[in-house]
Amino acid sequence: MAFNKVILLGNLTRDPETRTTPSGQSVTNFSIAVNRNWLDKDGQKQEETSFIECDAWAGRGETIAKYFSKGRQILVCGRLRQDTWEDKETGKKRSAIRVVVEEFSFVNDGKGGNAGGSTSAPTTDNEVKIEDVEGEVDLSDIPF
Questions:
Q1: For the chain, which residues make up each domain, given as ranges?
Q2: Rounded distance, CA 64 to CA 28, Å?
């Protein structure tokens, strides 16, 4: 069994770039910076930044290219993909790991405000609405 899922929250390091493959599919490439903070053994604050390349295909990528720009915060969910190639100058094999974006969310507008929340559709009359329940819930009442 295998599991390949990644969830990252970071800021775009450059504006997204969209290109079209020879087969006609569009793919948008962007990079996000993800920070990690911790205290070292002496209690000093440390910070590490990772720069992660991401690919978003078709409409998902087109939406990211339209609404996101350098510095904007984004939440991406996806899978890791390893690209391998032979370096033309040295002849050595090279590889890089990228995130293939399967879902994304708008986090904020970069100014501390909310830019519209998540990408979820609004609730319709056919959807279940969850309400607060007072008192204890009898688990035998749950049908599953």
A1: 6-116
A2: 8
Q: Which residue has the tokens 């519209």?
A: 116
Q: Which helix H or strand E contains 79, and what residues bound it? A: strand 73-86
pTM of the full structure:
0.71
- Contact indicator for 47, 34 with CB cutoff of 8 Å: no
- Decide if pLDDT at 136 tops 70: no
Give the fold, CATH level 3, of 6-116.
Answer: OB fold (Dihydrolipoamide Acetyltransferase, E2P) (2.40.50)
Q: Average pLDDT in the 37-46 region? A: 92
| CB-neighbour burial class of residue 56 (10 A; exposed 0-12, middle 13-18, buried 19+) | buried
Cα three-residue angle 117-80-118, rounded to 5 degrees: 5
Residue 63 makes CB contacts below 8 A (sequence gap 6+) with none
